[in-house]
Amino acid sequence: MQVQLERGQLRPGEVVRGRVQLDAEGARTELSVLWETQGKGTTDLGVIHHRELGTGEHPFEVALPRLPLTYVGTLIKVRWLVRLRRIATIGDDQVVDAEFEVAW
Amino acid sequence: MSVRHNPFSAARFAPGALPWLGAAGELDALADAAFQRGARHQILGPHGSGKSTLLAHLARVARRRGLEGRVVRGGRAEAGAVLRSLRADVVLLDEGEALGVGLRPFLALAAFAGTPLIVSVHRDVGLPTLLRCEASLDVAASIVTRLLGQAPDAGIVAARLDRHRGNLREVLFDFYDDVERAARMHRPG
């Protein structure tokens, strides 16, 4: 299970493009493009794109909103991610993140 | 300058984010007792002692057994959602005291409905205690090691656990501050 991004640095409103490779048969896998906050407080999350994928190679392109921008502060950080989640029937889901930066 | 990824961000140790560090088979044994029809239990412990984490893991055990385990937070869920949770196979009520005067009627309703209920509380509310949570030094050091990627000074963990009266969440936030402070000190120029 892999995610490859065409570019790791984007401007607000641009399109994030990439390719996903899924090799496990039968497992339910979700692709999401999202931002999340990290820090000492409760995590906030915004999912701007979400879909389920089957086995094989899948190109994707998703238009980004203008906000929020990537931010790295002491108390809070905002991260943009392409996330693959393989839903486990037993045990924990498997998650692969590819991070990219959204900034002017 | 701040670090891009602080390993002690709250999300890294949110309920269910870390594996359960109890004895092998402990979760299943707790679930066996708690998931019986009509069973009502409390999980007792101070802030940051692992009550919400245990509830999250029990919800996962429920899912693994093909049951719907509904976690509701007494302080955040609206009243309708709390009541509707009784339709699930197992109700896991976090922050039970936050329901205030609504807690007693809710416990009575759960008994009437027969829905297995596990409620996390800081003080005894008169239900059988499923587990008394306490953040031990071993567990604290193990979690810090897992997040940091290396073993911390056990003396520092012990001192912080003592200073925060067993509140592991606050201990981990002290380490969060350490990471940020170190990043500022190593700022180029």
Write up this protein.
- The complex is a heterodimer of chains A (104) and B (189).
- Chain A is mainly beta and 104 residues long.
- Chain A has strands at 2-5, 9-10, 15-22, 29-39, 45-53, 56-63, 71-72, 76-86, 94-102.
- In chain A, strands 2, 4, 5, 7, 8 and 9 form a 6-stranded mixed sheet that branches. In chain A, strands 1-3-6 form a 3-stranded antiparallel sheet, with no helix packed on it.
- In chain A, strand 8 (76-86) and strand 9 form a beta hairpin.
- Chain A is globular.
- The model of chain A has no long low-confidence stretch (mean pLDDT 92).
- By secondary structure, chain B is α/β, with parallel strands linked by helices.
- Chain B contains 7 helices and 5 strands; from the N terminus they run H-E-H-E-H-E-H-E-E-H-H-H.
- A 5-stranded parallel sheet of chain B has the order 2-3-4-1-5, sandwiched between helices.
- In chain B, helix 4 links the parallel strand 3 (90-94) and strand 4 (117-121).
- The mean pLDDT of chain B is 91.
- The interface between A and B is medium-sized, with 12 and 13 residues.
Give descriptors for this structure:
heterodimer, A: 104 residues, mainly beta, Immunoglobulin-like, three-stranded antiparallel sheet, 9 strands, globular, B: 189 residues, alpha/beta, Rossmann fold, 7 helices, 42% helix
Distance N terminus to C terminus of chain A? 31 Å
* CATH architecture annotation name of chain A: Sandwich
Uncertain stretches of chain A: none
Percent of residues in β-strands of chain B: 5-15%
Number of strands of chain B: 5
> What percent strand of chain A?
over 45%
Task: Choose one word for the global shape of chain B.
Answer: elongated
Largest sheet of chain A: 6 strands, mixed
The oligomeric state is heterodimer
